[in-house]
Protein 1
Amino acid sequence: MNNEKIIELIKPNFYSRFNNMHKKGSVVIYLKPLIEIYKLCNEDALPEIITYVGSVVTDALELSRKIETEDPTIISFLDLKGIYMSDLTTKTKKLIITIIQHLQNTYVDVMNKTYIYNPPVFIRIGYKIFYNFIDPDTRKKIDIVYKNKQVVSINELCDDNNKI
């Protein structure tokens, strides 16, 4: 599969849009389809995928720049529906880590809010383990949305009194 075909398959699952509720640019990510597409790729496709991811984030920032007077920021929507531990192979972990590293190095402090939809059980466990290592400002920017549309902040998620 050539790189252009891969990007065409990825586009419906990773895109930017204007977010009317927040009045800024946003990035929408459906992780399961991205992982499945990447499993079909060879290693040569990774730079092309990273370039595309960067263009999506840049587009979202441009949408935000039209409204915000200060430094533009974006809202991210990450859907984890259908993600299982078995999906996190060495190859897919490399994809996820490479994307995260690229975004952290290229787009410093642009995340305004991230909503994580349909979190698998291991996300809750992982957050509880790594909670104290996450910067408090970053914690405020992450919310988890459960099936019943209940929005839970990462602080509430890791609060032992909160049973969700």
Protein 2
Amino acid sequence: MNGQELYEQNCANCHQKDGLGFKDLYPPIAGSDFLKNKEAAICMIRNGASGEMTVNGKVYNQQMPANAQLYDLDIAAITTYIYNKWGNESAITETDSVKKVLQRCGK
């Protein structure tokens, strides 16, 4: 699967296909200040998150489930898609860099 397909299968239910999030429940990815920290985004895709999170000045408090079933290659593809679509980037996120980030964040 490519990054868009993986995003739509694993992320779009909450963040929506357009990346704008869902009402006051789930934060946007499109135009998100959270994209400034790619390592945190990679860790969150794999490990999920809980507790309050501020995105673009707005507080969200819904749990994001972990995606332990995703391979490093899948996370690289999703990250590439997200950052190329909404993060003003045109680079490919390499699997090796994802692997290194995930080693640092514990999975």
Protein 3
Amino acid sequence: WPERLQKLYAAARASATRSTLVLTGRCFSSAEQLAAINPGRIPDDNVVWTFHSYEPFLLTHQGASWAGDFIPYVTGIPYPPSSVPRAELDGVIEAIKERMNSEAPLLRRAGLISYLDEQIAEIDTDEKLKATMDKPFDVVAAWAQKNGVKPENILLGEFGMITQDYGKPFVMPAKWRAAYVRDVIARAEAKGFAWSIWGYGGSFGIVDAFDGKK
């Protein structure tokens, strides 16, 4: 990808000589893949570097039917998980496991449940959740400092939390989504990064939901 990015950059810059170009890493613009790029190979002070963060994916994509065979079964985990008593959180997790046991393909059930346990274990305290959400920002900040990239030339180009998947009954409570958005914005601004939320409407919409609903 870094080599292809250079070719794309050169082609764009050849015709758009004054436009600000936004460049990114691979793997859905992950922080780690942005950090794999050597910005010194693109000596241009009219460039913005961007990354996306939806950490932790377990929380931000709950119920998303288009995001693999695991996450569609995961609904109802609050943000942050510590905002409810542990017994209540355990009840939500057990309900998810019951859905997996009754609805998932037989040969996938044990693997899905094991993966759920692993994912929950990574965010089941405020300290673990903070570390998970901080990591992309820390990775990008360290890369920027190492390579002399100014914070104001970095854009968190996507983040957000799902409202509802298309045609699915589960709706993420607004207070969870608002809390998540607030916490991610705080992280971006603490590093001096610009940010852009995904999105205005649709399944992640912050203003428009489906069918023109506000």
